[in-house]
Amino acid sequence: MHHPNFKDTIAASPYIFTIGVTGDSGSGKTTFTRGVRNIFGDDLVSTITLDDYHGLDRAGRFAAGITPLDPRANRIEQLEQDLIRLKRGVPVEKPSYNHATGTFDPPAIFRPKKILILEGLHTLYTETLRKYLDFTLFVDPDREVKYDWKIRRDMNKRGYTREQVMREITEREPEYERYIMPQREFADAVIGIGHSRYGRDAGRKWNVYRVTLVQKRLQQSLGNIDLSLDLYSILSLSERNFALEFETGEKGGQRMGKMIMDGELSEHVVRKLEQNIERQTRVSPISIFKHRQYVTAGDLAQLILCWRIIHRRIFMETSR
User: Which end of the chain is more exposed for a tag (fewer CB within 10 A), N or C?
Assistant: First the structure.
């Protein structure tokens, strides 16, 4: 029996599936939704960066003595209204913030595609935003890792000096704890990132980190759809260090599963996972990590999140 490609089903559906990703600036939010974009393609996936909804430009924030982490520096109500309209498939006039100049570019018409990703500091900040998001993720790197990433990004891509970045980090920390960190409790999945047990330099040299994926248990399950790691491939085909742990726990009265991954896996192992997802969900082709002999724990977490998101989207389609 021939099964249609699920991408065609999504393309034909009027439903706008929304993914919300939050965490601190420079925490790696984009990395963990890249797989969704790679799998479904630009025809089906659109992204909104919440920086565009800053209410004050850089000079205005400086004059007011607040950082972008403070909700008062952002147009949260406009974001809520735009998300409600986009969820219905209605285009909006979206603002645009220019990081290079620290000012606003002219707004432009934004039309949602079938999968809409929201990435930013306040994605889960209000009940209204959370209500209109179908899958939510909080990215939570350890402080040392986050600071290292932010320094490198802001110096290389945004033209800041090291002193400017460090001053901003110091100013932002209290507001991160007050406004951003509490959103963690509302996420369907939380990604934690720390230095690898195989050496702190592994991150800078090979992008190897210890990655912890904490997920709420599935509320719904699709029959015969699972995600299996091939233990034989891990044991026989991998030539580099890799660690895999799983712990169960409870948070806020909910059972949680915690998977801890570190090191690098052979591409053969991850390709089998990709093929497993293709076979079971009929989302094809899936090939996120092309031309790579080894993939990192972060790559594996990205693939698992993609599976979880696909699972959620398929369930919504089959249960409507």
Answer: N
CA–CA distance from 296 to each of 206, 238, 240, 244 (Å)?
Answer: 9, 12, 10, 12
Give 191-212 pLDDT, tens digit per residue.
Answer: 999 999 999 888 888 889 999 9
pLDDT, one tens digit per residue, over 221-239 is 444 445 666 666 666 666 7
Nearest Cα to 231, choosing from 268, 277, 205?
268
Smallest CA-to-CA distance from 225 within 298, 157, 305, 314 is with 314
Q: Report residue 183 as tokens.
A: 């959103």
What's the pTM value of the predicted model, to 2 decimals? 0.88
Rank 6-10, 57-61, 156-160, 252-256 by mean pLDDT and report only the highest. Answer: 57-61
The four Cα atoms 310, 311, 314, 315 give a dihedral, to 10 degrees, of -150
CB 209 within 8 A of CB 260: no
Which domains, from first to last, does the chain contain? 1-137 (3.40.50.300), 188-320 (no CATH)
| Token representation of residue 9 | 């089903």
The answer to whether the CB of 243 falls within 8 A of the CB of 263 is yes
